[in-house]
């Protein structure tokens, strides 16, 4: 970390994460942050983002890395229907990281903190060989949206984009970011000028998918609204198939995803990008993670317009895909432990 | 991690960290843990323990590592005078770690969680190349003991042992643990049978110092009692000299440590061990960290019997050591960033 002392780093972070949150009674610099008490229950969660496992710097800037790590953590609050109150940022920083690098990383965190209205009120800095960002989030939550409330007969809803992030990453791996050279951020060296005769609309779709992967957004507002409407909810961090399985398991039900409805729910930019890549949009939607849509269940009559029905809940276990009158079990999905 | 899936690990941890805390409304297994609301303010803090930086496995078992990492985090609550409510454990686990290794690590965390009455209600598991344990702690805190309240004219108090942990580590590095071979835990290979004619009392002192380093205890009860008595407080994690400097800096005062009083405050086992090692007990007390005594300031009349006066607060800045009518500035201490 280029000779920065712990104290210099703390001062840098205090400046970077400066906040005027009403709930904060004492911020960065003491042994702990102090938050005002509240009648409502608290949701608390922690999420780690490790270099080489959750991200690498081939297609992401350090600013992206900080932004994504923060949104990933806050997404757990969205999935509970909680309102963000505060976050703690624990960084493990390799010595090779320069002051500029730390500046970029924390700028991304700070931007996500502003976007989610979740102030960073404390944290920890440690040296290590492997860069990691571990974010604790605390939220206010008077009626949490749990995973275990889904009941047979209910609908399955999705809120937010599915498959865009995975398609975006595929584009980047092919050297496509959908941008002109002038718009391109670092690391530009990994992106070649490969349009292959695609239309500007296709290029815009690609850019949208790339942005979904680089700058995901936790569905906080809709998560809160779901508390009154849904019976269960989870965020899609590991892919629709995998997280639907988690929800089914927690609720002791079977979830059936209807292929036709899922296809109808796909974002036009995903369809366009998948076509350009000659890949299956459905596959991206079922198995792509890292974009933090919400998956929820509820009665058909309670469904808000912004929640798209893509299936239903029955008795049984596991996740099935229904197409053309047949059901087949959906396996797979993403496990950071095993892959 | 020996083929354990994320789900298997979560189940293992849910079992290991099982709790019946009254404050916990929803524990491990959902997107976030849910804690009951409370009128009192919340103290929240996070602390990371990284292999090769904060610990290595030469002289510590993984159970020790888990125990120490947890106590180190909880010590920040002690330093605020907060009462532990809940903790979140974020583990980064290298693939080489076996199921037994994870079992030992989490057993140590669970033991510390019981000892501090701070239930682990959630967390995160990630793969990585470098083992780290990042612990978030949440506490109830109606009148936090801040670092910035020290005023000229007050006394400086220490609560808990100073220098024992550093002396204990020195013993281990010399191949001494103060135990007979039969009492010795793994890794026994690093300990030789080197008594050099010392008395069993000296060996007992060494064992006490080694234990202080391997199994530190956050001063939670006395930290809470200090809220009503002290003007400022901090925990000694980086050594008396370094943490006194932090307190002086935060409060805008000078702290003077009186050598004679500090010597009088030293634990007999530290004096005995230092003599056996032919090292300075004072040096261990001034510069040894990792044992989580509390340092506090307050009016002489308010001092509880269990707080030992070792100096005073004056106008100025920095930390001085006063001995034989002279004062000299104390420098140094431990910075995980720089060393």
What report would you give on this structure?
2 copies of one chain form a homodimer. By secondary structure, chain A is an alpha+beta fold. Chain A has 10 helices and 13 strands. The longest helix of chain A is centred in the N-terminal third of the chain and has 19 residues, at 62-80. Chains A and B meet through β2, β3, α2, β4 and β5 of A and β2, β3, α2, β4 and β5 of B.
Summarize the structure.
2 copies of one chain form a homodimer. Chain A has 10 helices and 13 strands. Chain A is of the alpha+beta class and 339 residues long.
Describe how the helices and strands are arranged:
The structure is a homodimer of 339-residue chains.
Chain A: H1 6-16, E1 24-26, E2 33-35, E3 41-50, H2 62-80, E4 83-93, H3 99-115, E5 120-127, E6 132-141, E7 155-159, H4 164-173, H5 200-214, H6 220-226, E8 232-236, H7 240-251, E9 254-258, H8 259-265, H9 268-277, H10 281-287, E10 293-298, E11 308-314, E12 318-323, E13 326-329
Parallel strand pairs in A: 4-5, 9-12
Antiparallel strand pairs in A: 1-2, 3-6, 4-6, 7-10, 7-11, 8-10, 9-11, 12-13
Helix pairs in contact in A: 2-3, 2-6, 4-5, 4-9, 4-10, 5-9
């Amino acid at each position: 970390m280029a000779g920065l002392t712990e104290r210099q780093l703390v001062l840098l972070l205090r400046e970077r994460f400066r906040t005027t949150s009403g709930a904060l009674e004492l911020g960065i610099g003491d042994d702990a942050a102090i938050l005002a008490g509240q009648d409502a229950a608290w949701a608390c969660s922690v999420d780690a983002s490790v270099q080489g496992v959750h991200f690498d710097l081939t297609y992401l800037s350090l600013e992206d890395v900080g932004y994504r790590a923060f949104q990933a953590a806050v997404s757990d609050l969205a999935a509970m229907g909680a309102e963000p109150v505060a976050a703690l940022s624990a960084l493990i920083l390799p010595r090779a990281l320069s002051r500029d690098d730390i500046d970029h990383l924390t700028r991304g965190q700070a931007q996500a903190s502003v976007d989610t209205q979740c102030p960073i009120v404390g944290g920890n800095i440690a040296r290590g060989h492997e860069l990691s960002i571990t974010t604790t989030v605390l939220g206010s939550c008077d009626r949490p949206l749990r995973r275990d409330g889904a009941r047979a007969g209910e609908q399955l809803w999705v809120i937010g984009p599915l498959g865009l992030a995975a398609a975006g990453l595929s584009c980047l791996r092919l050297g496509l970011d959908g941008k002109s050279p002038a718009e391109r951020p670092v690391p530009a060296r990994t992106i070649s000028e490969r349009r292959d005769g695609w239309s500007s609309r296709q290029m815009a779709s690609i850019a949208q998918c790339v942005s979904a992967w680089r700058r995901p957004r936790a569905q906080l507002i809709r998560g809160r609204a779901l508390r009154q409407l849904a019976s269960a909810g989870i965020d899609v961090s590991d892919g629709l198939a995998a997280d639907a399985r988690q929800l089914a398991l927690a609720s002791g039900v079977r979830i059936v995803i209807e292929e036709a409805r899922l296809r109808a729910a796909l974002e036009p930019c995903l369809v366009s990008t998948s076509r350009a890549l000659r890949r299956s949009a459905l596959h991206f939607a079922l198995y792509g993670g890292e974009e933090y849509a919400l998956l929820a269940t509820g009665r058909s009559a309670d469904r808000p317009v912004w929640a798209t029905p893509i299936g239903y809940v029955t008795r049984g276990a596991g996740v099935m895909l229904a197409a053309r009158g047949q059901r087949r079990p959906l396996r797979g999905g993403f496990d950071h432990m095993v892959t």
